[in-house]
Amino acid sequence: MGTPELISPRSSRVAAARRLARRTFRGKERRFIAEGPQAVREAIAHRTGGTPTLIELFATVEAAERHAEIVSAAHAAGVPVHFADDRTVADISQTVTPQGLIGVCRFLDSPFEEILRARPKLVAVLAHVRDPGNAGTVLRCADAAGADAVVLTDASVDLYNPKSVRASVGSLFHLPVAVGVPVEQVVGGLKGAGVRILAADGAGDRDLDAELDQGTMSGPTAWVFGNEAWGLPEETRALADAVVRVPIHGRAESLNLATAAAVCLYASARAQRTPGGCRSASRG
């Protein structure tokens, strides 16, 4: 690769990337930071209306040599690659130990109406979720379970918070995500699209095992997940078709948000893929 010219740490591009640590600037520029090889690799592959999501890539020389295929893919996609020293990358990074690759990306959230038009079968709704790490992890769980979309309500954390992006481990680029939608609009829209709304709550009057045994989860379903500390407010639970608890068979006091979301989403995914489930029927 030779000895590439390093971008100056005083460059306007570096300053602009550094500002994206703040939500105000992310919203104004409609750009966010994706760090690490997995996120950058997915960002290169992602397109919105034919336009690459990745705008530019900052890389240390060591990281560029270690992940030469990513740098080559960025060049092939017409994405500018800026080589930088470790300190410059660390100044842009939001991690304690940067991995040497930082991508500046365009916002990629989808309009909620577009998600409804796609007639989703499985949706994760984050209502009042404030922890960015949890939001990103639930998004990753939804992706792994084969969900069709994720919706973050207007009372939830910023999707593009660097911790959310990192916790999604690239899943942010895999499925449609709508943001900033009032929970009443989310529920009303999904119900209108024929989707059953299940609120996940440890104090729910319905049991997840019983729902599975009774065969009520094979149709289109949206799970609503609440705040990490206090769950879902009563007015949000009242919007749901059922409030469901994950049964605790051992002595644990409770499950954390991401674990409970994984259990619920996989339960729906399994039910929908059994004979008679909505996915089997649609592909039948």
On the 0-100 scale, what is the average pLDDT?
Answer: 93
Order of helices and strands: HHEHEEEHHEHEHEHEHEHEEHEHEHH
Give the strand line-up of the largest sheet. Answer: 9-8-7-12-10-13-11
What characteristic shape results from the CA principal axes?
elongated
Indicate the radius of gyration in whole angstroms.
21 Å
Indicate the proportion of strand residues: 15-25%
Q: Can you summarize the main beta sheet? A: 7 strands, parallel
- What are the segments in which pLDDT stays under 50 over at least 5 consecutive residues? none
Give me the secondary-structure category. Answer: alpha/beta
Number of strands: 13
| Chain oligomer state | single chain
Question: Helix tally?
Answer: 14
Helix content: 25-40%
Task: Determine the N-to-C terminus distance.
Answer: 52 Å
Descriptors:
284 residues, alpha/beta, 4-stranded mixed β-sheet, 14 helices, 13 strands, 19% strand
Summary of the model, kept short:
The protein is of the alpha/beta class.
Give an overview of the whole structure.
This protein has 284 residues and is an alpha/beta fold. It contains 14 helices and 13 strands. The protein has helices at residues 12-19, 23-29, 37-45, 61-66, 68-76, 86-92, 112-117, 132-144, 162-168, 183-192, 208-213, 234-237, 257-272, 278-282, and strands at 31-35, 47-48, 51-52, 54-59, 81-83, 101-106, 122-126, 149-153, 177-181, 196-200, 206-207, 221-225, 242-245. The longest helix has 16 residues, at 257-272. The model has no long low-confidence stretch (mean pLDDT 93).
